[in-house]
Design brief:
By secondary structure, the chain is an alpha/beta fold. It contains 14 helices and twelve strands. Helix 1 runs antiparallel to helix 2 and helix 11 runs parallel beside helix 14. The radius of gyration is 30 Å and the shape is globular.
Length: about 350
């Protein structure tokens, strides 16, 4: 609008100038007075425009993504805050799917020394992305300050046969975070996510029992079950990284009592303790802890914490029995145990 007013002013001045070149001197004074009035009106209009509030599209984004941009973890497509750059991650949350990776990332984002990638990158487990190279990967990282560490999370990395070797090729000293939960609960949560995704897409859904069982026995070819065989995938990671570089987070405890788990993560990442009990509050409606930081409150997306479907009790016992030996193998591998039934 300001540009249009300026253009109008220029045209009027040209028009009046042209008239004064052809008018007698007795009329020039009258024209000049009119021109002065016009200039005053346009000047007033310009001042009103400058004083007006900004257009709605220019207001500050108060969504979580907008807050991340204000805190230095900006979307790479936006102009970076002064003094920031896109760094390769110094830590990666490698999994496990439906283990609480999003909750862990959001809670780490509270820490002022952490910058998180807002979306799952799938660089090391998707061939088409890995073929784009490390420059492309780095370009997806958030802008961060020199005293911050960058963290990205892609739960598909844990079960990918190629991700461990590829991550080591990028950074052999990187710190890896693996969040796990009861394998049986993880399978049901995995099914629940697929179930709702298919419903929303208008696709047919199958009862969970049809997927868990085949020929009267546990269907070991069901992908959700294969993802819960933690010891098989962990052996692949230990071929490329020492156990000291892989920190195990108890996903069940993170949900019920987040602070102790986050304190251990802070120590593993060698971060000063900045996450406190005041950063969490229990949401009775959702049934889990939400986050309070920077004067605002936020909970995980509504797709998180969905109620699990009821499972036939006999099949559920069979599933737990199937995982029992696999869980013991995992405990021996990592040198610790979890309260999995």
């Amino acid at each position: 609008m300001l540009i249009a007013s300026t253009g109008l002013l220029q045209r009027k001045i040209f028009s009046f100038t042209s008239k004064t070149e052809t008018q007698p001197s007795s009329q020039i004074s009258q024209i000049s007075s009119s021109m002065a009035g016009l200039l005053g009106s346009l000047l007033l209009l310009v001042l009103q425009i400058c004083a007006a509030p900004p257009d709605f599209s220019q207001t500050v984004d108060l969504s979580p993504t907008g807050q991340q941009q204000m805190n230095g973890t900006a979307d790479p497509s936006q102009a970076p805050p002064p003094g920031t750059s896109q760094q390769m991650p110094q830590s990666i949350i490698i999994g496990v799917r439906k283990g609480g990776t999003r909750a862990l990332l959001e809670m780490l984002d509270i820490h002022p020394s952490v910058a998180v990638a807002p979306t799952e990158v799938h660089f090391f487990d998707w061939e088409e992305n890995y073929a784009r190279g490390f420059d492309w990967y780095q370009g997806l990282m958030p802008y961060s300050y020199p005293d911050q560490i960058t963290v990205e999370k892609t739960p598909g990395y844990f079960t990918s046969p190629l991700a461990p070797e590829r991550i080591r090729a990028m950074n052999s000293s990187i710190k890896l975070l693996l969040i796990l939960r009861d394998p049986t609960e993880r399978v049901i949560s995995d099914y629940t996510q697929v179930y709702f995704n298919r419903l929303e897409a208008g696709k047919p859904v199958r009862p969970i029992e049809d997927l868990l069982m085949r020929g009267g026995a546990i269907n070991t070819r069901y992908k959700a079950i294969q993802r819960s065989l933690y010891h098989l995938h962990m052996r692949n990671w230990l071929r490329h990284f020492p156990l000291e570089q892989i920190h195990l987070v108890d996903g069940d405890t993170l949900i019920s009592d987040p602070l102790p788990e986050l304190r251990r993560v802070e120590r593993f990442l060698q971060l000063p303790p900045r996450i406190a009990a005041a950063n969490f509050y229990f949401n009775q409606t959702k049934g889990f802890y939400c986050i309070r930081s920077d004067g605002r409150e936020r909970c995980l997306h509504e797709s998180k914490g969905r109620p699990h479907p009821p499972v036939n009790s006999t099949i559920l016992r069979q599933l737990r029995s199937y995982f029992r030996q696999h869980n013991r193998s995992f405990y021996q591998l990592v040198g610790c145990s979890f309260n999995w039934r």
